[in-house]
Structures are given as C-alpha cells and as structure tokens.
Amino acid sequence: MPSPSLAPSPPPFPVPVPARRAVDSDRRRTSASAILRSVLAHGPVARSTIARLTGLSPASVTDHCNRLTALGLIQEAATLRRSNGVGRPHVPVDLDDSRFVVGGVHVAVPYTTVALLDLRGRVVAERRLNHGERERVKEGDVLSHAAAGLRALLADAPDRVPLGVGVATGGWVDRDSGTIVEHPLLGWRDVRAREVIHALTGLPVHVDGHARALVNGERLFGRTAGAGGSVLHLFVGNVVDAAFATHDEVHHGPRSQSGAIAHLPLAGGTERCDCGRTGCLQAELSERTLCRRAREAGIIRTSDPMHILAAAAGGDPVAVRLLLHRARMVGRAAGLLLDVLNPDTVVVTEMGAVHREDCLAALREEVGPDRAAAVVPTSFPDSVLAVAGGSVALDVLYRDPLSAPSSTPSIRSSTASPGTI
Questions:
Q1: pLDDT in tens, 222-250
Q2: pTM of the prediction?
Q3: Which residues partner with 349 through β-bridges?
Q4: Angle at CA 85, nearest 5°, toward 74 and 83?
Q5: Which of 141, 254, 342, 419 is the most buried (most CB within 10 A)?
Q6: Handedness of CA 266, 267, 272, 274 (dihedral sign)
Q7: Residue 396 CB partners (closer than 8 Å, separation 6+)
Q8: CA 310/CA 319 separation, integer angstroms
Q9: Residues 338-375: pLDDT tens digits?
Q10: CA 192/CA 205 separation, integer angstroms
Q11: Angle at Cα 415 formed by Cα 413 and Cα 416, nearest 5°?
Q12: Alpha carbons 263 and 278: distance in angstroms, whole number
C-alpha cells in the first residue's frame, strides 16, 4: 500500500488573497480619511474623541494617527487637555498646516488664476494671469504660463512644500483621464491638462470641473462642512454649470459629463444662443451677456463684470437693475434644479448674489419662500477661483491621505516643453 501523502489537502475553493488585500487597503484608506477629516473639523482633538466620532477602535485611531504624523499631515498640539478636568491629560492632535501646500490652477475665459492653498483650504498666495485680447486662447501657452506662475509662487514661499496640483475649469472635464474634453468658450478640445502640467512641474496633478471642485471645497472647508445631506452647486460666470453631491460623493456620470446645464431652457430668456435656440441658460446668464448689455447701456466700456458691480456700488440705477435682473434669472435656474434634484442646500457662485444683499434677496425671492433658506452664496467670496483649483487636489488628499508622498517631490525649476496637447 503506498504511503499516504504528507502534503496538506488543497482547500475546497481558492483563497482570494489579492481580493482580501484590496479590501484591507480600501479599509485603511477609508479609516485614514475619516480620521484626517475629523482632525480638520474638530482639531485640536483627542484621539479618544476621534474614536467616538469615527466609530473606529482606539488602537486603530492611534495607529493611523502615527501614520499621518509620520507623513507630516498632523501633529500633537502643544496644549494638554484633561477629561472633565480630572484624570490623565490627553495630548490632542491637530492639522500641521505650516508646511504643506497644494497648487491650484483655475482656467477661466479671460484669465487663469494660480494659487497655493494650505491643508485647511486657505489661500496662501494667489496670482492672476491674463490671457490677453486674442481671438483664440492657445492651450499650450495657458498651461505653460500656469506652471510658471506656480513656480514663482513657490519661489516666494521657500518654507512651503508642494504635495500636488489641482486644475479646475468649466466645460466638459474628464477627471479620470485628466483631460479637458471640450471648453467651447476657449475653443479647446481634448486638452491633456494633467499630462502637460505634470510634465512642466514634476508634481502629481488632478483635474476636474470647477463646479464639482467647489462642491468638494464647500464640504471640506465651507459652510456645509460636516453637515451631511446633499449639496447642489450652481456656478454662474462666463461658463454656467452645476454639480451635485450626496453622501459625500460628487456625481460625475460617464466620462464626467454630469452638470452640463448650459443649454437648459430658461423661462423668460431672450438671448440668442450659438446653438440656434433662444433662452439657453448659459447664453442668458453668462458674464459675457451681462457685460455686453452694460456696454450697450453706457455703464462700462470693458468686458470686466466687476466694473458693473463698482458702478452699482456708486449708485448707478441701470447697473443695479441689470444685476437684479440677472439675480432673478439665476434664482429661476436654481428653482428649476431644486425641482429636479431636491437638494438640502444650494450653493450659488454668482457675482451679484455673492457681493450684494439685494441680489441675493432677489435670487431667493425667485426661488420661493418655502425653499429660499436652502440657497446660500459661496463660502469663498474673495477667493472662489483659487479655492476651486486647490480643492481638486485637496479632495484627493483627504480621500486618500496615506497616498501622500513620504518624501515630497520638488517642483521643476526649468520650463519644459508642453509637448503635444
């Protein structure tokens, strides 16, 4: 009789080790994200409080806090705290916002905004790069100037270390590929922004639409931070678009096409759109339309909508009338989106509503008394474009803080060729 084999019997089914490792990795990432967000919202905060807030075990909180401290994202606060004034003092932890920054790039139609933001979403430095009076804005020029602008800001802040760059703009932006698929007002198609900015800076780069970026900024650093529920962001500039978030997730849709509302019909609209129809939302509400009407009325001679605000502040009744009319039409658009999505909060980025109480009141009046309280202006009235760019990178950091480099990359000092765009 042959001797029995000493080898163990094979398991009745394959053991999915790689799948288990993936699940464990996701769990670690989710736990680290929850802890870092708790420190952002409540710091300086004791580890025991973090455990209570997140539902994680004290051992897990301690382990992740050690990891985040090693990465330089958090630090022990200088002040000890006692529980109810008795017992062993706690050593709270807080964000270390003194060292790291992210770069922010926002590409608007007339200019690009470059900025540095700290880990709390505060603007450390900001610069505006005008595109000039050209028929078509060349993507290679814009992106190379943006990279040079970031290098200049970092050179003026030698004690700051960049973790990465966020790029935001209007139009159709595919977050996964880092591509500006289409920006009709700039005349751009299939611009590989992530690839180009990375080649010029050597830093990790993330790209998204500005409305989605600002939803993330609001949920991390704005008035809806920690509130839960659903948030709609309505962005009204030269580009008009929207973004919707619920349960801490921003809806992107296939190839990130969600939020394209430029051609929604707006009741009462009279402006002829390039698509051939009348009353499309973007054609009616665009700052280009507002400035053209102001020039026709003799209020301004430029294409700068801030000059209309200045004229209204100086008492020009026609400027006030134009701003109030636009605010009411924005309120009509917000009401339409409220009907469709029914969010808990609508955040509006629109010049009049941000800077004038009468415009905000007119917008809310158009929405209606039952829902007016749900409509609020942006939390970043003086830095909204800088925050949009930086929030793209900060959202990635707060979702996966363990992916932050333990040895931070240095931004390239020489100008590289943007290559094919």
A1: 988 877 789 999 999 999 999 999 988 89
A2: 0.88
A3: 235
A4: 45
A5: 141
A6: positive
A7: 164, 166, 206
A8: 9
A9: 999 999 999 999 999 999 999 999 999 999 999 999 99
A10: 11
A11: 120
A12: 10
